[in-house]
């Protein structure tokens, strides 16, 4: 921040301040000396008055003190001491006024110094904001194409045979955005950060709603196709997972109607399940009998689990 200060002007103001401070110190020292003088004068006056009172009391017993010239002389001396004390008090008030005047000048100079430093701080803050904006724009120039390419890959190639590579680049793009760009967003009271958050949240929300809506539409359209056509589209991995988790590979509904426990060999319990050959929600064939051994198999797996014969699906 010192590089934004007007060093010549601050040096001039500081020199004046130092001179005023030195003047205030000298005036304060003079005031202290006057205060000590006044204190000494007050002590002298008190001592002289006490002596005078005692002397007058003594003279009353001996003669007429009112006509005594010595009494008059001592009274005049006492008045002179009092006048000296008053004169020093006048000097003290004048010195105090002078100190206050110089102090006001010093305060005015300090205000000028503060104003100059405030102006330097404002220039410094403006330069810092400009620098931060420059850093942000440079990072934006680097990160924006990466982010745009990552979003493009995610939308266009998420079903590609090399989708893990595209998805990995998309994750890297989001990492570059949130860790390489967002921390350098200019604040401006937080409005830019809030705006970016709203835009990102709105974009992700719109994509999520659109994806879910498309999924529901695809499922509804899929249910309009005949069970034979849907059965042909079921992949082996999906069929294995559907059988393991007992749900229809087309609509995702549980194909177990009910289950109960039967006692076997005393305390041991065996669970019995009841299933259907066709899905009771979408009508897809789930289980079929082997043409060779009549063993019941999951209709979407390629071979019979009993004799190994290919199923009718293949």
TrEMBL record:
TM ranges: 136-155, 162-185, 191-209
Keyword field: Coiled coil, Membrane, Transmembrane, Transmembrane helix
Coiled coil: 10-44
Protein name, UniProt field: DZANK-type domain-containing protein
The species this protein was found in: Flectobacillus roseus
